[in-house]
Amino acid sequence: MHLNRDNIKKIMGLIAFAILLYVGLQNTKLVGGVLRYLLGLAAPFLIGGCIAFVLNVPMRFFERNLFSSPQITKSKRLRKMKRSLSLVLTLIVVFGVVVIMLFMVVPELYNSFAAIAKELKLARTRIPQLLDEAAAMLPMLAGEIAVLKDHFLNIDWQSIGAIVIGFFQNGNILSHTFNIATSVVSGVGNAIIGLVFAIYVLFQKEDLGRQFRRLFYSFLPETYVDRFLEICNLTSSSFNSFLSGQCLEAFILGMMFFVSMSLLGLPYALVIAVLIGVTAMIPIFGAFIGCIVGALLILIISPVKALWFIVLFLVLQQVEGNVIYPRVVGSSVGLPSIWVLAAVTLGANVAGVVGILFAIPVCSVIYTLLRQTVRSRIKERNIEKDKIA
Question: What is the C-alpha to C-alpha distance for residues 386 and 383, in angstroms, rounded to an integer?
Answer without folding.
Answer: 9
